[in-house]
Each structure stands twice: as structure tokens, then as C-alpha cells.
TrEMBL record:
Protein's name in the database: DUF455 domain-containing protein
Organism: Brassica carinata (Ethiopian mustard)
Highest taxon listed in the record's lineage: Eukaryota
Residue ranges that the Swiss-Prot or TrEMBL entry lists as coiled coil: none
InterPro entries: DUF455 (IPR007402), Ferritin-like_SF (IPR009078)
């Protein structure tokens, strides 16, 4: 059990919860300021605005509500939050997965006596639809070789990432449910909440694709984010470091640039959707920061070198250009990810050089879109700042 939580050091079985906005690390001279909106996000009511209207998110129509109601029986039969997560993970149809994810979180929030539960055996990969065809990254068609126009291409890639993100969050809930006594109820509440946000993002992307005359599955995609999920399935600290603090943090970097490119392309409606999604990602990164600090605190480990050790071990590359302002807002200290802020030091005090030649095959949320978009000669890549 201890090894599954983190193999760096024996893991105390006391509560991991720490709700203050400033958390002390194992170093008495360091403090970490969390996102100021984290408590408001945690205490926010269920967000049912899953339709993108003329001016932004709206409540679903009665027709959409009836569609969701067909899953109530499945959701109400689940005996625990972990079982609800497993239900989402076992659902292959993307829209059904999104609806069930929202109903699952809604039930969790409305039933205070629903236990987190425990699932000992979980499939390594979630259920997937026949399309999109999952291929290696270098076989995913570039924008100029895709049958989709650029804005639809970007939306399809983003929809794929959001669908993966639903499963990533629920996998975190179900996978680590046997360690409820260590992690505490709030850990599982946070990641179920993240899953609900991601399911709403997928609905917006799917709706906009349909408005443009396309649908999710029209072009091949990769399975790299879920590979990261599998790689970190035995280590909660690595899961937190690699997914929220690397992959989702890259969305903070690329989001504003993608919005500008979509505006330049003339698709203001899509740009508004992407802008809203990027804004909501701050909460997901902040959740990861909070729980990573909490884990490090219980291990009596300094967060910065622990983070760097984990991303090196798991092959997660820190790639710029970085949006320092957004990362600071989310609570990621700059010296965690920016080599210009200092040299990495291990526990013995010896210097470590970043392995810059080791390239992670994993692309994050919006940075993956930007890197592929650059192949389209009709748009000029902005120089990195």
C-alpha cells in the first residue's frame, strides 16, 4: 500500500488534508501560496451549464435533460463514488460518458452519506468508442493534411483531450480509492469535481464541432495522455506531478495563444469556448499543487526537488514557452519548472543537470494543438517570448 502511494519514502497514514492558502513545505524557509479561488471552486454549486449559447454557457434544454435522465438508473445503482468512477471508465460512448460523469458528481454532492468506497481491480485503460482511430502521434494527420478546416481540427483535438481528462480524473478517484484513510474524502471530492468540469468542456467542444458540420471521431487521434495515466497508476505523487502539474499546466501556457490564433482565423465563437476552458483549467492545476504539497509535507520532503525527481523518472518533459503569470496564479512556483531560476539540487546537495535531450512523447492539452497547428502554412507561429 505504501509503495503504491509513493515509493520515495514511507508514507504516513495520517490525514493529507491541508486547507490553508499558504502551506509550509519540509523546508522551514519555503512557503507556497495556493490559488486564491481554490476554496470558492471547492464550495461552488453543481454547474449544469453544459450548453454553449450565443453569449456563453447555458442550462441544457428539456430535450437534453431527457437524454441525460436515461442514465439515472445506472448512476443511482452504484454503491460508492469509486463505483461511479468505474462506471464512467467502462462507458465507451463519449457523450454518454460525459452525461454519466455529470450525474455521478451530482449524486456524490447531493448524498452526503455516499461512501468513497474501494475498488481493488480496475482495467488499465478506459473503454473507448470505435472512432477516433488511435494511432501513434506521428501518424495523426497535421492540420494541412486533415479533411477538417483548421478551427474544426483544433476543436476535435481539444475534444479528444477533454474526453481523456474525464477518464484521467475518474481513474484517480477509483484507482486510489483503497487509500481513502490516507488521502481523505476531500481528495476524492476534488478529482470528481475536476472530472465534472472536464465533462462540461467536452460537451462544449462536441456541440461546436456539430455546429461546424463535424463530430468527434472524424479524424485519428493519439492515446498519449492515457498512457501517462497508466504509467502513474501505482504512485499518487507521480500522478499529481505528471498530470496536473505538467500536462494541465501546459494548457495554461498555450491557451491564450490559441485563443488569439482562433480570433485571427475568424472563429470568435470557438475562441470564446477555448478561452473559458483555459480559464477553468487554473482550478485543476491548483488542486494538483495543493495535494502535491500535502503529500510532500507528510513525507517530510521538499516539494521542488521531489517534483523534479518524479518528472525525470516518469519522463514528463517541461517544455516552454511558459505562461509565468497563469502558473503563478495556479500556485506553481517558478523554480519548479524554469531552469533559469536556479540549478536543481538533490537531497544530498549535489547538482543535477536537466535531461534536455529526453523528449516526452506526451503532449498536453492545448500545447499539443499549437505544435500541430504550426504545420499549417496559412498561420504564422508567434515567436516564443
Amino acid at each position: 500500500m505504501v509503495r503504491m502511494l509513493i515509493h520515495l519514502r514511507s508514507f504516513p497514514t495520517t490525514s493529507l488534508s491541508s486547507r490553508s492558502l499558504t502551506i509550509s513545505s519540509s523546508s522551514p524557509t519555503q512557503q507556497h501560496k495556493l490559488w486564491s479561488g481554490l476554496d470558492n471552486w471547492r464550495n461552488s454549486p453543481i454547474n449544469d451549464r453544459r450548453i454553449w449559447g450565443p453569449n456563453g454557457p447555458l442550462l441544457p434544454s428539456s430535450c437534453d435533460s431527457i437524454s441525460s435522465s436515461s442514465f439515472h438508473g445506472l448512476v443511482s445503482a452504484a454503491p460508492s463514488l469509486a463505483d461511479l468512477g468505474a462506471l464512467v471508465l467502462s462507458t465507451s460512448d463519449p457523450l454518454s460518458k460525459s452525461h454519466i460523469s455529470h450525474l455521478a458528481f451530482s449524486r456524490w454532492r447531493s448524498e452526503n452519506n455516499l461512501p468513497v468506497g474501494s475498488i481493488s481491480h480496475l482495467p488499465s485503460s478506459p473503454a473507448r468508442p470505435p472512432k477516433p482511430l488511435l494511432v501513434p502521434t506521428n501518424e495523426v494527420p497535421s492540420p494541412k493534411d486533415s479533411p477538417l478546416p483548421l478551427n474544426a481540427y483544433m476543436l476535435h483535438t481539444l475534444a479528444h483531450i477533454e474526453l481523456n481528462a474525464i477518464d484521467l480524473a475518474w481513474d484517480t478517484v477509483a484507482r486510489f480509492s483503497p487509500f481513502f484513510d490516507v488521502l481523505g474524502r476531500e481528495f476524492f471530492d476534488d478529482f470528481a469535481h475536476v472530472a465534472d468540469d472536464e465533462s462540461r468542456h467536452f460537451m462544449w467542444c462536441s456541440q461546436r464541432l456539430a455546429e461546424l458540420g463535424f463530430k468527434y471521431g472524424d479524424i485519428p487521434a493519439n492515446n498519449l495522455l492515457m498512457r501517462e495515466c497508466e504509467n502513474t497508476s501505482n504512485n499518487v505523487a507521480a500522478r499529481l506531478a505528471v498530470i496536473p502539474l505538467v500536462q494541465e499546466a501546459r494548457g495554461l501556457d498555450a491557451g491564450p495563444r490559441l485563443v488569439k490564433r482562433l480570433m485571427g482565423f475568424g472563429d470568435h465563437r470557438t475562441s470564446k469556448i477555448v478561452e473559458k476552458i483555459a480559464d477553468e483549467e487554473i482550478a485543476h492545476v491548483a488542486v494538483g499543487v495543493d495535494w502535491f504539497l500535502s503529500v510532500c509535507q507528510k513525507m517530510n520532503r521538499a516539494p521542488c526537488p521531489t517534483f523534479k525527481d518524479l518528472i525525470k523518472e516518469y519522463g514528463a518533459e517541461l517544455r516552454g514557452p511558459f505562461n509565468h503569470s497563469a502558473r503563478e496564479t495556479a500556485g506553481i512556483p517558478r523554480d519548479w519548472y524554469d531552469p533559469s531560476c536556479g540549478t536543481q539540487v538533490d537531497e544530498g546537495g549535489s547538482n543535477k543537470q536537466s535531461d534536455k535531450e529526453q523528449l516526452s512523447a506526451v503532449y498536453d492539452r492545448l500545447t499539443h494543438i499549437i505544435s500541430m497547428e504550426s504545420e499549417n502554412s496559412s498561420l504564422e507561429r508567434r515567436p516564443a517570448k
